[in-house]
Write a structure and sequence with these properties.
Helices cover about 30% and strands about 20% of the residues. The protein is of the alpha+beta class and about 110 residues long. It has a 3-stranded antiparallel sheet. Strand 1 and strand 2 form a beta hairpin. Helix 2 runs antiparallel to helix 4. The termini are far apart. The structure holds zinc ion. Zinc ion binds next to loops.
């Protein structure tokens, strides 16, 4: 009986897709990676917004709620997540990014 070995090698059916989950550092919402925006602490120690998710460094994620960005810009959530002091310059960049990309009254419900 050699049928069993053959069956083990070939799995039938679609492989379960692994979707990386991320957590918003402010509201702790969990969701798939692509709905979040990565914030990175670069090797130089600066904090930058990394929409492509490709920059080197320690990353933290924010969801797309304006309120979370506002809180990240004014509170300690990002400092804690990235273990760095977020500069005033970086905080302004966060506010600006939120202004450009998100609506103040939008609770993250897109489409
Ligand atoms: Zn959030």
């Amino acid at each position: 009986m050699t049928q069993e070995t053959g069956a083990r090698q070939r799995r039938k059916g679609p492989r379960p897709k692994h979707v990386p989950m991320r957590t918003c550092v402010v509201c702790r919402t969990k969701d798939a990676k692509r709905t979040f925006v990565r914030i990175v602490r670069t090797p130089q120690g600066t904090v930058e917004i990394d929409p492509t998710g490709k920059k080197n460094g320690r990353g933290a994620y924010l969801c797309t709620r304006f309120a979370c960005w506002e809180r990240a810009a004014s509170g300690p959530a990002l400092d804690r997540a990235l273990r760095v002091e977020v500069t005033e310059e970086a905080r302004q960049a966060l506010r600006h990014y939120a202004d450009v990309h998100f609506r103040r009254d939008d609770e993250g419900a897109s489409h």
